[in-house]
Amino acid sequence: MFRKSELRHSFRDMWAQDEREGICAHEFCPSLCWEHLPDQAGEVDLEESPIYHICLYPVGDRKFYGTMVCPACKHAWFHRGCIQGQDLNAGIYCIQCLLCSNGGAFLSEMLTMGIRIPDSPPSWEDSRMDTALAQGTATAVPVGAFAPGGREQAEQEGMTSRGAGTAFSRKNYRLSTEPEKSKVTGIVNSRLLNDYLHRVFTNADGNQPAAAYRKHLTFQNLQEHLERLLAEENGSEDSRDQVAEGRLGPSTVVLDHTSGFEGLLLVDDDLLGVIGHSNFGSIRATTCVYKGKWIYEVLISSQGLMQIGWCTLNCRFNQEEGVGDTPDSYAYDGNRVRKWNVTTTNYGKSWAAGDIVSCLIDLDEGTIAFCLNGISLGTAFDNITRGAGMAYFPAISLSFKESVAFNFGSRPLRYPLVEGYRPLQDPPVADLVKARKLLGYLKNVIHIGIDVTEGKLVEKDTSMWQLQGEPTVLITLAHIFNYFSPLMCKVYLVEDVLMTFLLSILERGGAVDAHPLIQQLLDLMWLLMEEYEVHECLKQLLMSLLRAYRFSPIIPDLGLQIHYLRLTIAVLKHEKSRKYLLSNVLFDVLRSVVFFYIKSPLRVEEAGLQELIPTTWWPNRFTKEGKESKEVKEESAEERLRRRAYERGCQRLKKRIEVVEGLQVQILKLLLNNKDRGGGEASRYIFLNKFRKFLQENASNRGNLTVLCPPEYMVCFLHRLIAALRFFWDGHKTKTPAALSSEEAYIPPQLFYNGKVDYFDLQRLGGLLSHLKKTLKDDLAAKANVLIDPAELQAVTMDDLDEDEESATSAAQRPSAALAIGGALARPGWLSSPTLGRANRFLSTAAVSLMNPRRPLGTLEKIKVRTLSVEQRTEEDIEGSHGNEGLLLGRPPEEPDQPITENSLLEILDGIVMMYNLSVHQQLGKMVGVSDDVNEYAMALKDTEEKISRCPKRRRDIHEELLKSQKVFSEKLNHLSRRLAWINVTIYSKEKMQDIYWLLRVCIRTIEHGDRTGSLFAFMPEFYLSVAMNSYSALKNYFSPVNSMEELPGYEETLMRLAAILAKHFADSRIVGTDIRDSLMQALASYVCYPHSLRAVERIPEEQRISMMKNLLAPYEQRPWAQTNWILVRLWRGCGFGYRYTRLPHLLKTKPEDASLPSLQKPCPSTLLQRHMADLLRSDRDLAPSFLNSVLNQLNWAFSEFIGMIQEIQQAAERLERNFVDSRQLKVCATCFDLSVSLLRVLEMTVTLAPEIFLDWNRPSSELLLRRLAQLLNQVLNRVTAERNLFDRVVNLRLPGLESVDHYPILVAVTGILVRLLVDTDVQG
């Protein structure tokens, strides 16, 4: 394919003329084929019998491509071939309409329509025209080259000259040096053009020769002049010879994926990123050094166990020994903060994900050193082995799922601050010099303007420069881009030249919109570069921005991160660039969610948090057991001042982080734009498809940690996506008042069964989707008008069987194929590296893949009715039109006929809920660990200070040791309190809490709407119930005490609605999954443990309360009964005999630190639910016997198991050899004891609430129940109360894990039952 700029010099050989029609075509250029023929814009009425004004033939009654009309007068008609011949003779200085003599508009239209116009005087005045034609130097413009959006827009708009943006200006210029011969056209006169070109294309020193010594420049000799300038001071040959000394191996340095590795490794496409996939895999580079000073960088993607450094070819590694564990290999380990060379010692600082390690070797002095983020860690090794046969390779050993990316010099080093050290790979010096020169010429074009009226050059404000289509400027830029474009396909030049230039534009401050120059430059790139060049340039630019953002050090004002995000926004604001990046780069090549992550600083000092938060503070209201003290102590004046200073510092930090978060939300708003339909699909629908694939990749590979998006990224991505979604949701509400606001958002139930949204293989409430389609096909047809063909279901079943067989066959064949390619296993396309690119090589010394086969990403779910693959969906399939409801197809009658919002926003909301379930909740719980560490150190510091106050003055040695401990604890607390401030702002702030609360309410409304559909509720994915339960748990446990859930709007109502869901669905027959049923039961058990949530259960409708209690009283057989029993015990706790304790009474004196158990919350009985239970047991004569018999059966089993376990423990304790009891055995024993006590408490509850069940002889089952109860109580008393029996001996052993096993808990439960029986027997006579 010809380059756009080359076409300007080769039109003589490219055009073929059709004499009859005057149609131009060319066999090489797709822009000029029959399908891309441009046409003039505007409707021009054909006059009566018009004629062509050159050949005088009649026009006829139709217009075609070979017909052209003057854009000014609309009356002059020409054949394309005729006007081409005329313009070749007239030249660019005398071209005009033969009828109206218009020059400017006529020239613009001819250039736009691809008419070849020589840059020379007319042929009747200058004989040089023939020479120019013969040499092919006449200036011609390809069809569509000057259209605002490039060829594509030209094809759509018919090559109009009326376009905006980069269309030609209608301003007229004086062209001739002779006033009497002035013509109105767009090209400046010869003298002014010469001055302009000399100002743009300066010499290497930036100076211009005197006018008398300057060569006269025109567009004919500009190419020669430009080539001469670019050839000046090219020292590439000298530099290449110089760099080769001291280095052996290929000039392009990559990781050796053929023989230089050990273990299982995943290597990226570019052979620079690597992920560990075994215990301790090792790999080295392809190039070694034996002389001189060398440096390379390693971008740390995860902060786990890795050893980075240098090794020789003789080093042999295995799964236990890596770089630094053998002679002649040297490594730095920032995870353990040590250096390794057979032996190990402390060295350096700890690294974190997002850091950059520089590895330096000086083979002249024999030393190895390391830097962390540009800061030297000092010399690590000296006197390393040198001499004949000794050459060192960059190398790394890393454990499972750890990942890094190397930079040997293929990109500019981030910290090239060490003098005398050279990267292992030579920079492209010649190309770098050339690119910088061309960029300078481009800056000159932007900076220099032409004032044709005054006939002089003027300085222009570069920030507001716009490409207005002046032919002089366009042709000048075309010459520059002719050389600049191929250079911009190289990553080194993009990062060093282009990105640096674009960042400098934004350094002037202000909003991104205040710098339109970047948009103009992107327009230029699409206009003057080939598409493959623009694509590669944009891809490398975004990858460079991603690396720069991710691996930039954290500074107090987050200035670096803000800088890179602003440029990312500026690039994505360009519509055509945004759509290309969305379609081909974001989510496909890059982990684009990295742009929405704000990494947490591991080293507080380097992040500048000491200056930002100079005063630290931590809560001091915890007891020695780690629980919040119930006593509210008066805060001292000093503590109050410290707390307020700390809070002010946190607010300063929050404001700076909010700036970054705001920029991240701006990026998402650009990606979710659904109004940019020019030139194809809107950005939002491209994003939707990519987002769905991203979710599928993370949902389908839950067990493969190396391919999942890191959960810390997902947390930030979720919050930014919620902010952008609510922005568009409420914007739609403003335009459509009948729609719902984001505060009322929910997912309509038809999305779960109409097949418009793919839920992959995620479990539904009713089981497998294929099973639901078969069993509920009649309900689907009746309620949702969704028809299922039985023959299709049968075919699907057979297809699934065939696929399983094929997968097994391909899996069996894969190892043999891997051996044939030398151990580099082909890697599925869906497997992406957590570094920066896609990994496509799976390296294994055993050449065996560890990955399980799975279906490819893009396969169609055949069992889904009317399902389109992600790639096939269009905007109409999502939003619907003309009676087609899109995603809302199949609305059930229970669902209100009311607009909710745009369908695309519903799918994004559904993806947000899925994202929370995949990893966000887990990460929220993980980050609470920092707060727990603060509490532990605070307690340790408080205890140490108390010891210091009690230490006798004569024991100075003890006092000094305590002071050292106090200093260590204080320093650690200062560090943790600042880090906790960062985490509270980025993860646990009030705004983040409101996002999770909003998500909880969305899930509640979605479940409520789905529940109304009856049997179709079974189609809802399980994760909606999981997110409802987990988000409530996060709000209650993770965000306090920083923020309180009680302060959220509508908190009481939300609590009650969630309680109603738990009460109704924990025993819902439509829910078949055992895991989700257990989760519902556990959530309900947690709900009744706390007074506030228990009151919410009591506020749900009475019918639901009674139904809940009836389900709880169902027989214990054939179901998980322990949680049910626990719920009943919690409803009773505080009302039983001796059942109000929160600390185990038998341990208060002997071991008070063990007296508090997590399960012993403050009693909060529910008399209302107890009353419902009593009414049910009295009124239903079949319910009471079946329930009590099951309780007695379980009590008999639990207590028998307990006795058997303590017999084994006693036998183990009496052996003469070492006393050893398995901790797991102790745990099972304690569990059986706790179950026995809880079952006895339920019996006590039943006897107390409804004694007539045992004592009313009119009931047929009373006598039998009373007899069974008496037998079991007698068995318990015999085993527990006898002197020096088995129970006594085990209790007196005081084994760890058996703290709860004692006489008191079980005897008071038995006593409570007997007392109630005696009292009620006396009452009833």
UniProtKB/TrEMBL annotation:
Q: Which residues form the B30.2/SPRY domain?
A: 233-413
* SMART domains, sorted: SPRY
Give the main EC class: transferase
Keywords attached to this Swiss-Prot or TrEMBL record, sorted alphabetically, are: Metal-binding, Transferase, Ubl conjugation pathway, Zinc, Zinc-finger
RNA-binding recorded as keyword = no
The reply to whether Membrane figures as a keyword in the UniProt entry is no
Q: Which GO terms describe its molecular function?
A: ubiquitin protein ligase activity; zinc ion binding
Catalyses:
S-ubiquitinyl-[E2 ubiquitin-conjugating enzyme]-L-cysteine + [acceptor protein]-L-lysine = [E2 ubiquitin-conjugating enzyme]-L-cysteine + N(6)-ubiquitinyl-[acceptor protein]-L-lysine
InterPro entries assigned to the protein according to its UniProt record, in alphabetical order:
B30.2/SPRY (IPR001870), B30.2/SPRY_sf (IPR043136), ConA-like_dom_sf (IPR013320), RNF123/RKP/RSPRY1 (IPR045129), SPRY_dom (IPR003877), SPRY_RNF123 (IPR035773), TPR_RNF123/RKP (IPR057987)
Family matches, as Pfam families = SPRY (PF00622), TPR_RNF123 (PF25576)
**So what EC number does this one have?**
2.3.2.27
PROSITE patterns for the chain: B302_SPRY
The protein's superkingdom reads Eukaryota
Q: A cellular component term (GO) from this record?
A: cytoplasm
Disordered as annotated region, ranges: 874-896
A single Gene Ontology biological process assigned to it is: proteolysis involved in protein catabolic process
Name the chain's protein. Answer: RING-type E3 ubiquitin transferase
Which species does the entry assign this protein to?
A: Limosa lapponica baueri
